[in-house]
Amino acid sequence: LERGHGRGLSTVFGRVSVTRLAYRAVGAGNLHPADGALNLPAGLHSHGLRRLVALEAARGSFDDAVAAVERATGVRVGKRQLVELAGTAAVDVDGFYARMKAGPTPDALLVLQFDGKGVVMRPEGLRPATAKAAAAAGRKLATRLSPGEKNGRKRMAELAAVHDAAPVVRTPRDVLPPPGQDSEDGPKAAGKWLTASVVDDIATVVAAGFDEATRRDPHHACTWVVLVDGNQAQLDAVTAEAKRRSVQIHILIDFIHVLEYLWKAGWSFFDTGDPDAEAWVTDKARKVLAGHATDVATGIRRRATYNGYDQTERKGADTAAAYLDAKAAYLDYATALAKGWPIATGVIEGACRHLVKDSMDITGARWGLDGAEAILTLRAVIANRDFDDYWTFHLDQERHRNHNSQYADNRIPP
C-alpha cells in the first residue's frame, strides 16, 4: 500500500489533481479503490465534462462545440479529442435500448419507418463506389462544380423509426377533402424511437428497426405496418428481415411520394400553374387511395396516347404510370384507411431533417466517419428524450468496465 499517488483530471471546473492510495503487487497493475468509489474515467476528462461535450457536439459543428465547452468551463478541448469523447459517450447506446421493457398493447399499431439522407463526407469517409465515381468524374473547375457535374461527396445515413399508434379509420375524402375543408388527422405517433447510422448499410439499419419492434412486441401480437419511400433496396431489406423473423408485416409506400408522381403526370397534361391540374391530381389521388392504382396508371397512359403526345411530352405521364404499376403491391391504401393505419412517413422524414440536415448539412462541413456516426447516435438518443436515462446507464457501464471488473466478484472492496 502506497500513499500519495496522483492523477490529473480535467473537469467542468478546470484541471484538478486527484490524490489517492495505490494497492500494489509484483507483476500486477496498481489498483485505486478511490477511483472506483468516485467512478473516475479511464482518461483525462471527467464524466461531467464528457456529458457536456456529448450534448454540445450533438447540437452542430465540432468547432461550435469546442467553443461552447470553453465558454462554459474554461477548458480547451481539441477538436480531435472532442470527436473521440463523443464517440466514447455513445458506446453504450445499443446496450441501453436492449434492456428496455416491452412497449405497446396488442390492440395498438406497431409502425416501422425507414429512409436515408446524404451526409457530405471527407474523401476517406466515402463508400468505395461513391469514392470511385467521384475520382472518375474529376473536377473541371477549381472554385465550383461544372454544369452537369455531381459532387460525389455524400455518404447515405440510414435511419429507422419505430413507434406505436392507435388506429384512426378514414376515407379518401378525409385525406384529400374538397377545397376549403381541412383533412382529418391520421394516427398519432407515440413512444417514438429513432436510430441512424452512416456506417451501417440499409439491411443493418432495417434489422435494428426490427430489433426494436421485436423488443416491443416479442410475440407479434400487434399489427406491424412498415412505411418506406419506395426505394427498392429498402423494400428488399424489409421483406427479407420480416421473412427471417417469421413476422407478418404490411408494407406501404409513403402516399406523399405517390402524389409527387401524380403531379409529374399532371404537368404532362396541363400548363404550369393551371388550376385544373390540381383538380385532376386530386381526383386521381383519391382513386389511388380507394385501391385503384393500376387503373389510374392505365388511364394516364390512355390519355397521353389519345392526345397524341410525343415521347418528350408524355415523359412525366409515363414515369408516373410505370411507378404506379411497379409499386402496386405496396399501394393498398384502401385497406390501410379502412383499418386505421398511417399512410405517410412523416416521422422518419422529420427525423431526416432533425438528425441529419439540421446538424450535419452545415455549409462547408465535411464529416469523418467516426465523428458522423457518434453524432448521429447521440442525436437519436436525445431525439428519443432518453439522454438523461442513457447517461445514468452509461455511467454504470463505465464503473463496471473501468473499476468493478478489476476486483473479485466485480465488487470494489469497502
What is the structure about, briefly put?
The chain is an alpha/beta fold and 414 residues long.
Weakly predicted, low-confidence segments: 141-150
Range of helix content: 40-55%
N-to-C span: 15 Å
Round the Cα radius of gyration to an integer and report it.
27 Å
Shape: elongated
Q: What is the number of helices?
A: 17
Q: pLDDT average, as an integer?
A: 88
- N to C succession of SSEs: EEEHHHHHEHEHEHEHEHHHHHHHH
Keywords for this entry:
single chain; five-stranded mixed sheet; 414 residues; 48% helix; alpha/beta; three-stranded antiparallel sheet; 17 helices
List the helices and strands and how they pair.
Blueprint lengths: L1 E10 L2 E12 L2 E4 L1 H6 L8 H11 L4 H12 L5 H11 L3 H6 L10 E12 L7 H10 L16 E12 L6 H4 L14 E8 L4 H15 L6 E6 L3 H14 L3 E5 L1 H15 L5 H15 L3 H14 L8 H12 L6 H7 L6 H15 L8 H15 L3 H16 L12
Helix pairs in contact: 2-3, 2-4, 4-16, 8-9, 10-11, 10-13, 11-12, 12-13, 15-16
What do you see in this structure?
A hairpin with a 2-residue loop joins strand 1 (about 1-10) and strand 2 (about 15-25). This protein is α/β, with parallel strands linked by helices and about 425 residues long. The protein is built from 17 helices and eight strands. The chain folds into three domains: about 1-90 and about 385-410, no CATH class; about 95-255 and about 345-355, no CATH class; about 255-330, no CATH class. The strands form two sheets. Strands 6-5-4-7-8 form a five-stranded mixed sheet. A three-stranded antiparallel sheet has the order 1-2-3. Helix 15 packs across helix 16 (about 370-385).
